[in-house]
Amino acid sequence: MEKEKQWKKSKTFLEILLISTKLGFTSFGGPVAHLGYFHNEYVRRRKWLDEKSYADLVALCQFLPGPASSQVGIGIGILRGGLLGGIISFLGFTLPSVIALMIFASVIEVLDIENAGWIHGLKIVAVAIVAHAILGMAKNLTPDLKRKTIALFALVLTLLWQSVFSQVGVIIFSALIGYFLYKQQTMQQVQEEVTFPISKRVASVSLLLFFALLFLLPVIRELFTYPWIAMFDSFYRSGSLVFGGGHVVLPLLEREFVLGGWLSEEAFLAGYGATQAVPGPLFTFAAYIGTVLNGWGGGLLATFAIFLPAFLLVVGTLPFWNSFRKNTKIQGALMGVNAAVVGILISAFYHPIWTSSVLQASDFAFAAILFSMLVYWKLPSWIIVITGVVGGMLLSYIPL
């Protein structure tokens, strides 16, 4: 009987690994597309969970900071195979793009990337993709004048005061504004409850660890001037403060590593462009940065550090989700944060993306073409990236 149980467990874990890895190799198109792939595979084909449970899990992960699609994948793994199932699901979905970006980072170190035309093309790809993200997020997250004003406040402050403290401060202040402005607003309430296989004790430990690392790592970083600790702190903090989708990690990482002098803008934006060409979550951009800074060991550490908050938050909030989603005050604070995220993203769109990419009329024209291919012609991201690389090389032959 015991052997039969062990065999069933092993079979479940292997099944989780194989399916999540398949999704990791094939999930192009960003977080919204990832959720569609998950729904098709886990709900419609495998019937691991029903529509209601899947909708609840997606709602929870969109409520939390972090990469929503990765968190949904972790949650499904937990529902299927407990905590170990969540870890296996995460590894399967994430490692394909992590390995691809670490290889790219290793290759790019031996190339002259500063003035390469294809690198400039990737930078213009970033212009088109982030512009598309801004339009979609602004439509959904700032539908009224109050939230548009919050976004404007976040834009002005983070543009004029460029530091990690400005972003943290804007997010906290916007949460307070949202709390007071929207705490009485009637929200759509979900009456049915969903049960997750995580005890409140385990959840509480996860939440405690999340906040302990968030506040203690900067202190440890100051006490022990060790590069690996500083890198772990930067990636962990970036992963903890991302609201509104993976694209928002761009300005946080840019503030940490470009303005902090760790990485050139050219290398940073080349990696960002390459990340658009691989499947899986945008957070795997951290693997590229870590590899450029400290080899494959740095890439693995960066990946672990930036995804750790997402894992701790999913485990920490699953048992409390039924209470959170019915609390209008918490939802009001989140509305303020989401509006601020739009402003932060516009700030990052101007600098470093626009200022280092659109240098002449031909750059702007090429960015408009890529944007149209992405938004109006609905072409996949990998086609946009290939077009950007080829177009960037051609642009290098056009005289200023």
Automatic annotation (TrEMBL):
It is a multi-pass membrane protein. The keyword Cytoplasm does not apply. Keywords: Cell membrane, Membrane, Transmembrane, Transmembrane helix. Its main location: membrane. The chain crosses the membrane at residues 12-37, 86-111, 117-138, 150-182, 202-223, 235-253, 300-321, 333-353, 382-399. Pfam families: Chromate_transp (PF02417). It is found in: Cell membrane. The keyword Membrane applies. Coiled coil: none annotated. Belongs to the chromate ion transporter (CHR) (TC 2.A.51) family. PANTHER family: CHROMATE ION TRANSPORTER (EUROFUNG). This is Chromate efflux transporter. The gene is chrA.
